[in-house]
């Protein structure tokens, strides 16, 4: 608790007493702690690629430039670490925008199959590189209300994760079904899966199951937390089921529009 004391004076201006107000600041403290944790995570995430870039540049400038193989190796590291910083900054800007945006202002009626086909087309090239197929059978048209760009961002993220965290030549499926009040969209992969102890945390900011594995794929650990906040802003829900070395299924529920 925090307290503030106010003196009280009577009509003649004589001191008459004190009113002490107590404020419950536990929510504020919690918010401050979250903010501190966020900044310390961001700094940590930036520190690693920055020192890698520094180290590589030093090696190149201290004689490494004379050796073609060393040049290629260290310039590739510099390029990759630079991409990491770029991705991190992009995700941080998205978090900032989504948290301060009034999602209501950009909502429109949108057709789910159209949105999903658009997302599939966007990731098709990276799926092709891994000889993966994306299987999606349209049954009927489903309508939801939402912000097209933000929902597109969600499904692109789920699809990109499914591709990244699955071996070559596997199949990714998208299933859409209709429930009483919502539309359910599942992205299913047959990839590496998520250990049960990590499942409750994967929607948290900066959470990665295996840092080395995620680093290899260039992830920031922010993707799913952004997806969850977008779905929440659409009054929807997101769930995950996963089995290690079998695959994962991410299910998004969005309120249904009748027509
Ligand atoms: P990242 O940028 O690291 O991919 P995300 O927030 O998108 O971060 O995901 C958090 C973590 O959840 C990832 O590091 C990864 O370990 C795990 N994950 C997400 N999607 C999948 C998936 N389809 N299969 C296996 N693991 C996944």
Automatic annotation (TrEMBL):
Q: Which organism is it from?
A: Turicibacter faecis
- What is the name listed in the Swiss-Prot or TrEMBL entry for this protein? histidine kinase
Q: Which reaction does it catalyse?
A: ATP + protein L-histidine = ADP + protein N-phospho-L-histidine
* Keyword terms of this UniProt record: Kinase, Membrane, Phosphoprotein, Transferase, Transmembrane, Transmembrane helix, Two-component regulatory system
**EC number(s) on file:** 2.7.13.3
Q: Which residues form the Histidine kinase domain?
A: 41-258
Out of the domains of life, which is the source? Bacteria
Q: Where in the cell is it found?
A: Membrane
Which EC class heads this enzyme's classification? transferase
Major localization listed first in the record, in broad terms: membrane
């Amino acid at each position: 608790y925090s307290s503030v004391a106010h003196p009280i004076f009577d009509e003649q201006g004589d001191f008459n007493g004190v009113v002490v107000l107590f404020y419950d600041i536990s929510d504020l403290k919690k918010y401050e702690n979250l903010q501190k944790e966020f900044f310390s995570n961001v700094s940590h995430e930036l520190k690693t690629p920055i020192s890698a870039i520094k180290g590589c540049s030093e090696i190149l400038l201290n004689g490494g430039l004379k050796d073609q193989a060393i040049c290629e190796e260290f310039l590739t590291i510099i390029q990759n670490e630079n991409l990491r910083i770029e991705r991190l900054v992009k995700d941080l800007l998205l978090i900032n925008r989504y948290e301060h945006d009034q999602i209501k202002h950009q909502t429109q009626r949108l057709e789910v199959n159209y949105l999903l086909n658009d997302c599939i087309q966007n990731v098709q090239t990276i799926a092709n590189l891994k000889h993966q197929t994306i299987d999606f059978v349209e049954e009927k048209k489903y309508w939801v209300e939402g912000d097209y760009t933000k929902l597109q961002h969600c499904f692109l993220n789920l699809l990109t994760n499914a591709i990244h965290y699955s071996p070559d030549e596997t199949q990714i499926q998208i299933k859409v079904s209709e429930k009483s009040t919502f539309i359910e969209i599942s992205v299913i992969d047959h990839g590496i899966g998520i250990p049960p102890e990590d499942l409750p945390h994967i929607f948290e900011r900066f959470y990665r199951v295996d840092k080395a594995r995620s680093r290899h794929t260039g992830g920031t650990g922010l993707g799913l937390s952004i997806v969850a906040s977008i779905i929440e802003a659409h009054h929807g829900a997101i769930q995950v089921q996963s089995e290690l070395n079998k695959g994962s299924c991410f299910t998004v529920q969005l309120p249904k529009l009748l027509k």
